[in-house]
Design a protein that fits this description.
The chain has about 210 residues and is of the alpha/beta class. It has helices at about 1-30, 35-45, 60-70, 80-95, 130-140, 170-180; strands spanning about 50-55, 75-80, 100-105, 115-120, 140-155, 185-195, 195-205. Helix 3 (about 60-70) links the parallel strand 1 and strand 2. The protein is globular, with a radius of gyration of 19 Å. The structure holds S-adenosylmethionine (SAM). S-adenosylmethionine binds near residues 56, 62, 105 and 124.
């Protein structure tokens, strides 16, 4: 029996080691080719030195590090501990300042009300478990006049498997409608080239709408 217990705990240990290695590999894979998308959102968001950015689903943090070059500060939030560890390690190595990494999800942002001027989510909204809750959280942490950007790879309607990781035009339209229902104003959808990728970008703000004067 003792032998059984030993081999079970050994198998459990190996599985945990395997899961840990897989999580690190997945996180590292998210570093490839993300710079162009990060630069595109920085440009489209029109970041200035007074902006405070929150990146929801930051992965290993490429866009957060890009934000720190233009904004007053940036926070990366992700549920995945391995991605955050990689983000911290890279940022420490590059001596990046004014950056914070927090474990959390779009649906439960570990941040106070009105702490950000820009919230964005790159290639992550298609992973969120509950978009309505995520948009309510984005609205809560944005200050008045804050900007929200959702950026995803543009995909064809009806795409399957890995090709479905992104947003089709109808899906972008659905998100735009959800944002308007969540109280965002100035909602608009555009496409923008980022390196070899075509991105669909949905922008919205927490400011007054034109109709409100
Ligand atoms: C494809 S990666 C994109 C990472 C990064 N934004 C980038 O562009 O390199 C998707 C990320 O979404 C995160 N994610 C999954 N579910 C999430 C949720 N409910 N809220 C926030 N992020 C989530 C994953 O952990 C992962 O880091």
């Amino acid at each position: 029996m003792a032998g059984n217990g030993d081999s079970q705990s050994q198998a459990g240990g190996l599985r945990r080691l395997g899961d840990g290695a897989a999580a690190w590999l997945c996180a590292a894979a998210m570093l490839g080719g993300r710079g162009a998308a990060a630069r595109a959102v920085v440009r489209i968001a029109g970041l200035t030195g007074s902006d405070r950015v929150v990146d929801v689903g930051c992965g290993p943090g490429t866009a957060v590090r890009e934000a720190t070059r233009h904004a007053a500060g940036a926070t990366g939030v992700d549920p995945n501990a391995a991605s955050l560890a990689l983000a911290r390690w890279i940022s420490a190595g590059r001596r990046i300042r004014d950056v914070t990494w927090l474990q959390g999800s779009a649906e439960h942002l570990p941040l106070p009300d009105a702490c950000a001027t820009v919230v964005w989510s790159l290639s992550a909204v298609h992973h969120w478990a509950d978009r309505e809750a995520g948009f309510a959280e984005a609205r809560r942490v944005l200050a008045e006049g804050g900007r929200l950007l959702i950026a995803e790879r543009s995909i064809k309607p009806g795409s399957r498997g890995h090709a479905a990781h992104g947003l089709s035009a109808p899906q972008a339209g659905q998100i735009a409608a959800q944002l308007a229902s969540a109280g965002f104003t100035g909602v608009r959808v555009q496409t923008s080239r980022a390196g070899r990728r075509l991105l669909t970008i949905i922008q919205a703000s927490t400011g007054l709408s034109e109709a409100d004067g």
